[in-house]
Amino acid sequence: MIQLTNVTKSYPTKLGRQYVIRNVTCTLPSARNIAILGRNGAGKSTLLKLLGGIDFPDRGEITTNKRISWPLGLSSGFQGSMTGRENCRFVCRIHGQRNFKEMESFVQDFSDLGVKFDLPIKTLSSGQKARIAFGMSMAFDFDIYLLDEITSVGDPTFRKKARALLEYKRKNANIIMVSHAAKQLRQFDCNLGIVVNEGKMVVYDDLEEAISIYQKL
Which CATH superfamily includes the segment(s) 1-67+179-217? Predict the structure, then answer.
């Protein structure tokens, strides 16, 4: 499970402090596929980062007994002067993986970058970086995978390959997914919904109810 206890996350703006979520306490079951819904700018991606532990709340805490991925395809955490291979090795060390060579080979092959895998990350396109980041996510076995509109990464051939591998991973894992498309959420078997709106985060046990509420915002 994922437990949020009195969690608040906000950002200062010219219009005053804007809250993503405010004083939220709830439990998210780990055996469900969860959809996060909300209007543009509501803070869906920020919430996903909080759940993945790559962003932190202003107050409160988020605890879990599960291994949770970073948002798939997220490349903002890369060190730009390091190569794709070096970044992969760094991530392996963080997650306690010692089989560097095997992980590097998998990510290089999966990303279809060939020799460009050994170029500094800052010289690659955003799409190429996203493919490396997705490959790194797939190289690990997580209990929960975080998806943020991930099916838009890469060309049609790469998207097909990425979707196939993700479906394989989902046989032994669950997902938490951000998407504006109700059809896509159903395709990924989401069966619990979270609606984020004006600093509030409401959990709905029924996905269709969450979609209905979201569409009325």
Answer: P-loop containing nucleotide triphosphate hydrolases (3.40.50.300)
